[in-house]
Structure formats: structure tokens, C-alpha cells
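note to self — DONT lose this again. spent like an hour looking for the file last time. sequence + predicted structure for the chain T wanted, 114 res
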Amino acid sequence: VQLVESGGGLVQPGGSLRLSCAASGFTFSNYVMRWHRQAPGKERELVAHISSVGGRTNYADSVKGRFTISRDNAKKTVYLQMNSLKPEDTAVYYCNAISGYNYWGQGTQVTVSS
């Protein structure tokens, strides 16, 4: 089982990034997918959630209207489009798959700074 995140980096405030998480080793379409983040000195927090069927989404209040989670079951990939980025979005972002089992990626660093 693997979840491999990519797309992180350094971006200026107001900019955009698109994170990807490629899955392998399990039936991706059966799993709820989530993005979490952890900033230095803070606990890991849930950012966005997408259901396995129907594509229902939920977001943390802090990112509503700026972030969009989506999935492509054919490509076994989940995405996080992040717009209007703020310095407080700086964190390591983790991909998470849930369906009885709970799988995590290694994380990708997002830094928002001028």
C-alpha cells in the first residue's frame, strides 16, 4: 500500500498550489480520502474530505471557499487545489485513505511566504 503526495513547495501569499496523492495497493474507489495538515508546533488537523461514492466533500472552516478536494478513481489519485493561500496555510500536508483500514502518505511541505 502506498500513498505518494506531490505538488508542495514555496508560494507567495495569494498564490495557488495543486497537491496530488497517488494511491496503489488497495481498491482506491472504496476509500474515503482526506487531506490533513500539520503546522510546526501544532496538532494535525483535517483539511478536506471526499466520499468514496458520490464525491461528497467537506472542508475545515479555515479553508472553505479557497481549497477544493477532488478525486479521479480511474487514476487512483486525489487532489487538493489550494487558492488564495495564506501564511497560516504553511504546513506539511498529508493524504489519508479510510475504509476500515487507515493509510497515510509521507507528506508534502507547503510554505506560504513572501
